[in-house]
Amino acid sequence: MLVNGHPGEHVDAIDRGVAYGHGLFETFLVINGVPIFYAEHLNRLLSGCERLGIPTQGLAEQLRHDLQLLSFPEGYSVLKLILTCGSGGRGYLTPNPASPTRIFMLSAMPVYPDQPHQGIRVRWCQTRLACQPLLSGIKHLNRLEQVLARNEWQDPSVREGLVCDSRGYVIEGTMSNLCFIRGNRLYTPALDQCGVEGIVRNQVLILAESSGLGVEIGHYRPQDVEAADEVFVCNSLIGIWPVIELGGRSYAWGRYTRQLQAAFNQRMVQC
Amino acid sequence: MLVNGHPGEHVDAIDRGVAYGHGLFETFLVINGVPIFYAEHLNRLLSGCERLGIPTQGLAEQLRHDLQLLSFPEGYSVLKLILTCGSGGRGYLTPNPASPTRIFMLSAMPVYPDQPHQGIRVRWCQTRLACQPLLSGIKHLNRLEQVLARNEWQDPSVREGLVCDSRGYVIEGTMSNLCFIRGNRLYTPALDQCGVEGIVRNQVLILAESSGLGVEIGHYRPQDVEAADEVFVCNSLIGIWPVIELGGRSYAWGRYTRQLQAAFNQRMVQC
User: Which fold has domain A2-108?
Assistant: First the structure.
């Protein structure tokens, strides 16, 4: 673990990340020491910083320097970056200048003995996401809604839960984005009011065309998802996981999802 | 500063307070070593714990023990308590058992040379609070909306900003609750969708009756506040601050506000 470029496992108790969740995070899949889709993660981080008033001058260079200090294992590993606005300020007012805190945490890739790449069980959550366009899309540290949603179930055989917003539109999983396919179109929820704009989601949207899929980003109800031919969730760590059971209904690990998984894996190793 | 009952200034970087804002805080005014309205703060903290799935067994005793380790100065000081869900868990899922982190931070009482108890300037914020009944009322660590609202202005002569929710109803200040008086009624916004249920706000509601004021908790627009005879904001640190300027309009430091300030000060020293 690295804190501001030095080995360490602690942050100041007065850090604005602790006090207010004033910060962002990124979770990188690392293959043989290479953080996959690094540029895309960095772009999302920087755009999050702009939204939250966290200065970015010199940040990209500092992060790159931090990365060189880490000893990555061979094969797959997981790298989490937390970037906070640092310490200080009078209450909620951001100090000027602010001195952000960078935390890199390297850990082993989780082992999934149940072959989730071939299909997972998913449930609907009761927790609703609030509509807050000022915070939508970015991966900020205010994640209580996800904590509440994820704690709705304990059954480890249920791999993910889908969450709607307060209007009743499906938004995402607790830790993943949602896509579904009907006919030859791929649908994924609009994220202008809540939700995180996932790196893999954006890759999927790019890859959909080459799989012969039209793409529609919009507002969908649970019944729209349930009426789909294929459903999957995705994030940087898991890639694409087909949903084979949702709310008591069964779905195929279908043709388009397989094509997208193959195309995505291809793209990933080209990174 | 005390972390889990030991002198310290750091928390684990993997604490759920840092990662998700999975925790709560309380800010106590301390007079001659006595945290004012301690029972009320503790009650709010415990009810927040219940909402966020943070275990409370033995917590009240631990906090009381922590307090005995602190060296309070004479006169006024400020004690902030952050309680997080601690470290661990697979992603958003809370570990079982969870081991909460307690952070006590004692600091000097801020000095206000501009006599804000006689009246402050206040502005309207553009930032809207999202409606999220699962998190309303409690003082959780997901405070990005407050950070965004407070950073809308830099002018130190403006002491507070008022924030509406996404429906356009006035909710509170960035760091305080809002009350206003028209005729012989005291009005304060309902906090069922967002906002923090302040300790001083609740005391004011109790004290209003003895000041000959009827009380109404409801949904109000900015124009309702602007049409008030008297306006004030309140929190545990500042007590009651009359608003004498809001959005270009002037207000009196009026009779009812003075009465409530006097009654509140009386009640405070009886604590």
Answer: D-amino Acid Aminotransferase; Chain A, domain 1 (3.30.470)
